[in-house]
Automatic annotation (TrEMBL):
It comes from Marinobacter salinisoli. Pfam families: PBP. This is YbhB/YbcL family Raf kinase inhibitor-like protein. GO terms for molecular function: protein kinase inhibitor activity. The lineage of its organism: Bacteria, Pseudomonadati, Pseudomonadota, Gammaproteobacteria, Pseudomonadales. InterPro entries: PEBP, PEBP-like_sf, YbhB_YbcL/LppC-like. It comes from the Bacteria. SUPFAM superfamilies: PEBP-like (SSF49777).
């Protein structure tokens, strides 16, 4: 398979229009346009009955004690975990494109709804956990929400956009399914896949 994420070149910085958080010289971070990028894929395997999209950041700190704290840094040596930013399943087999801004256009406090979206079925991303204790933002975040790494992190984060061609029309996922549920559900059903990776940081020393 071939995947193009329009506006994002392999290994290069992700434009701010796709970000949940953008750099602010006064407050470290402010909300970004949070548009999903346009995905276009081709060279689909024979027998494909649906597609799934996963976007994740493998560079998220496993311990959040120092995240976004004045006078602190998130150490480069801290173990890292996956943070899911975008989950779409049951995308029909005749679809080859998700337009820019189709699944997300702006930051929605308390999150966008899950279930069937403009294209496919939305899963729950990890902003649900990250913002759970914020009274203004806490809620269930579904579909696409873009990069917003800690502004005091010592490393640049990597964001993997993946499309999977599957041999089933539906993964049978409903309710509040997450990234691990999608990864488990696609096991044994992947006919092909493609990935594009972009980078992002809010640390002014790394920009």
């Amino acid at each position: 398979m071939k995947l193009e994420v329009r506006g994002i070149d392999e290994g290069q910085p992700i434009p701010e229009r796709f970000a949940f958080g953008v750099y602010s010289p006064t407050d470290h971070m402010s909300f970004g346009p949070n548009k999903n990028p346009e995905l276009v894929w081709d060279e689909v395997p024979e027998g494909t009955r649906s597609f799934a999209v996963i976007m994740f950041d493998p560079d998220v700190p496993s311990v959040a004690d120092d995240v976004n704290k004045e006078g602190k840094t998130v150490s480069e040596g801290l173990p890292r975990v996956d943070f899911f930013h975008w989950l779409l399943v049951d995308i029909p087999a005749d679809v080859r494109r998700i337009p820019e801004g189709e699944d997300s256009d702006g930051v929605f406090p308390k999150g966008k709804p899950g279930g069937p979206g403009p294209i496919g079925v939305r899963g729950v991303n990890n902003y649900t956990q990250f913002l759970a204790d914020n009274p203004d933002m806490g809620g269930t975040y579904c579909g696409y929400d873009g990069p917003c790494p800690p502004w005091n992190d010592e490393i640049v984060h990597h964001y993997h956009f993946e499309v999977f061609a599957l041999d089933v029309a539906s993964l049978g996922l409903d309710g509040a399914f997450d990234g691990n549920d999608v990864r488990e559900a696609i096991k044994g059903h992947v006919l092909g896949s493609a990935r594009v990776t972009g980078t992002y940081t809010l640390n002014p020393d790394l920009r």
